[in-house]
């Protein structure tokens, strides 16, 4: 399942999640839905997706909530995970190319469905560029270890 994409949302983003799942499936991408029983909060879902990526079950993940902020905060609590809240195609590309973000977060209340598809597509088509960004990404890991989050 490593080439699959994990996806999860809170109650504010169910419709957007369903739309993006269909969009990805139509592109031939396997999508694994991490939504857990109703009543669970976004921190539970974000943690499960981030942990699955850290454990190598998936290469990338998509997390959706009202703004994308909460999901990003929680996913970034998992050591080794870099989650980026993106609001346009440029930020999505930079999240991958410069920061090697494995998770993208979007807000269903602030990002329309067509823009969300375009953002996801830009993120999926981008790969980590390395180069001058590699030492910076390594430094992120250094600070995680320094803070005791290894």
From TrEMBL:
Matching PANTHER family: RIBOSE 5-PHOSPHATE ISOMERASE, RIBOSE 5-PHOSPHATE ISOMERASE-RELATED
Residues annotated as transmembrane: none
GO biological process: carbohydrate metabolic process
Keyword rRNA-binding appears in the UniProt entry: no
Family according to the record: Belongs to the LacAB/RpiB family.
SUPFAM superfamilies referenced in this protein's UniProt entry, alphabetically: Ribose/Galactose isomerase RpiB/AlsB
Source organism per UniProt: Sodalis ligni
Annotated Pfam families: LacAB_rpiB
Name recorded for this polypeptide: Ribose-5-phosphate isomerase
UniProt keyword list: Isomerase
GO molecular function, one term: intramolecular oxidoreductase activity, interconverting aldoses and ketoses
């Amino acid at each position: 399942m490593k080439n699959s994409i994990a996806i999860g949302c809170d109650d504010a983003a169910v419709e957007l999640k369903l739309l993006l799942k269909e969009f990805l499936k139509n592109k031939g991408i396997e999508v694994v839905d991490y939504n857990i029983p109703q009543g669970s909060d976004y921190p539970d879902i974000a943690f499960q997706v981030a942990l699955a990526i850290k454990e190598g079950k998936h290469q990338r993940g998509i997390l959706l909530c009202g703004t994308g902020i909460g999901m990003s905060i929680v996913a970034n609590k998992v050591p080794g995970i870099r989650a980026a809240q993106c609001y346009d195609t440029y930020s999505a590309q930079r999240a991958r190319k410069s920061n090697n973000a494995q998770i993208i977060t979007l807000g269903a209340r602030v990002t329309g469905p067509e823009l969300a598809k375009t953002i996801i597509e830009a993120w999926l088509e981008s790969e980590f560029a390395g180069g001058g960004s590699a030492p910076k990404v390594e430094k992120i890991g250094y600070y995680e270890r320094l803070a005791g989050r290894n």
